[in-house]
């Protein structure tokens, strides 16, 4: 899915595991997602597929209206990708389909897995939340299985989002966090602050503009990663700040490990990576995106992160974060390898 690069980066761990099992992996993507994965996996076939191309509004109060106006576009994309997939399955002899939040990526003839951490989707009204969940489950019901990248039980990341009172009607498996990073021995910090931008426009650029205005007032070395893979654009900033348009998987892992504090959106993939690595973070939810606002509030209350709003005084929030009493959890070992092996058992025996 093209709703932020997090949907792309969290597939990296899965692709690696399928390749380890000797599978030929084919990716359907476009734009920045295609660029990122083609660089990480030069031997993987990437088929161009138009994304949902969601755009946000500049103003939080108009967020819901902006998304609602794009529903016809989203539904058209779901129909289009479903038809596209049926042809691709035949042309490329596909045995198993893994869909990261793309509702049309299922087939009645091929086992299909849907990945989401949002079984319940946050909404401003409880009645609306129930309606959205019914629609969500109707789409998930087309798939063979649903994978939830979270832990089952009380120690979990997404709370009510991934642990609703009622589960979908298809087999639903909690597979643990999907992180492209692995925790390793701490290196000396090269940066005090690592700013990681992400998400759809125009909010990505609006946050970037705010960060650029405060960087000169911060002490210590700073790294700013702009989430613009393929871009050659250069921007001027203070001497203590290094700016990168994009970092490879290994470079980003090294940057996370070498940074004392990570400042980022509250996207679920980023949250999984931060907790896997045990990093202190400051989360700034995308204005109006209820999922991110819920996650940031929940993790702050557990003291797993510090948080502030995009319209708050971010500079003051960063100072508060340096004295915040973080109580980071111990994250159990990943079960991705076992999940992939089990998924391959879904494929019908040939001949």
Question: Describe it for me?
Answer:
The chain is built from twelve helices and twelve strands. The chain is an alpha/beta fold and 351 residues long. The chain folds into two domains: 183 residues, Rossmann fold; 131 residues, Glycogen Phosphorylase B (Rossmann fold), CATH 3.40.50.2000. It has a six-stranded parallel β-sheet with strand order 9-8-7-10-11-12, sandwiched between helices. A four-stranded parallel β-sheet has the order 3-4-5-6, with no helix packed on it. A two-stranded parallel ribbon has the order 1-2. Helix 3 links the parallel strand 1 and strand 2. Helix 2 crosses helix 12.
The count of strands amounts to 12
Instruction: Specify Rg, calculated over alpha carbons.
Output: 20 Å
- Percent of sequence in beta strands: 5-15%
Please identify, by name, the CATH architecture of the largest domain. 3-Layer(aba) Sandwich
Average of the residue pLDDT scores: 89
What is the percent of helical residues? 25-40%
CATH hierarchy class name of the largest domain? Alpha Beta
The low-pLDDT segments are none
Shape: globular
Features:
351 residues; alpha/beta; Rossmann fold; 2 domains; six-stranded parallel β-sheet; four-stranded parallel β-sheet; 12 helices
Question: Topology, pairings included?
Answer:
Elements: H1 6-9, H2 12-20, E1 26-29, H3 31-40, E2 45-48, H4 63-69, H5 71-91, E3 97-100, E4 112-115, H6 126-140, E5 145-148, E6 172-174, E7 191-196, H7 203-214, E8 222-225, E9 241-244, H8 249-257, E10 259-264, H9 268-277, E11 280-283, H10 290-301, E12 306-307, H11 314-321, H12 336-344
Parallel strand pairs: 1-2, 3-4, 4-5, 5-6, 7-8, 7-10, 8-9, 10-11, 11-12
């Amino acid at each position: 899915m093209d709703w932020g690069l997090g949907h792309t980066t969290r597939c990296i761990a899965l692709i690696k595991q399928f390749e380890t099992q000797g599978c030929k992996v084919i990716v359907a993507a476009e734009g920045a997602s295609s660029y990122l994965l083609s660089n990480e996996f030069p031997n993987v076939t990437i088929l161009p597929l138009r994304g949902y191309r969601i755009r946000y509004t500049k103003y939080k109060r108009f967020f819901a209206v902006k998304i609602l106006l794009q529903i016809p576009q989203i539904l058209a994309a779901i129909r289009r990708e479903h038809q596209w997939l049926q042809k691709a399955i035949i042309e490329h002899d596909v045995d198993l389909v893994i869909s990261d939040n793309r509702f049309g990526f299922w087939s009645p003839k091929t086992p299909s897995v849907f990945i989401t951490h949002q079984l319940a989707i946050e909404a401003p009204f409880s009645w609306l939340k129930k309606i959205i969940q019914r629609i969500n489950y109707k789409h998930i019901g087309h798939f063979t299985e649903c994978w939830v990248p979270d832990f089952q039980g009380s120690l979990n990341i997404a709370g009510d989002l991934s642990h609703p009172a009622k589960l979908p009607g298809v087999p639903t498996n909690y597979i643990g966090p999907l992180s492209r990073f692995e925790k390793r021995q701490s290196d000396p910090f090269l940066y005090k602050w690592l700013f990681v931008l992400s998400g759809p426009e125009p909010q990505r650029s609006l946050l970037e503009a705010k960060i650029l205005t405060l960087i000169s007032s911060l002490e210590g070395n700073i790294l700013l990663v702009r989430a613009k893979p393929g871009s050659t654009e250069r921007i001027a900033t203070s001497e203590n700040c290094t700016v990168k348009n994009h970092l490879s998987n290994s470079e980003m892992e090294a940057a996370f490990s070498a940074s004392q504090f990570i400042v980022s959106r509250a996207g679920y993939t980023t949250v999984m990576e931060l907790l896997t690595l045990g990093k202190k973070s400051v989360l700034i939810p995308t204005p109006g995106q209820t999922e991110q606002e819920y996650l940031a509030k929940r993790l702050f209350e557990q003291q797993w992160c510090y948080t502030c709003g995009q319209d708050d005084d971010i500079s003051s929030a960063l100072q508060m974060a340096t004295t915040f009493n973080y109580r980071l959890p111990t994250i159990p070992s990943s079960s991705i390898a076992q999940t992939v092996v089990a998924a391959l058992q879904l494929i019908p025996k040939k001949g």
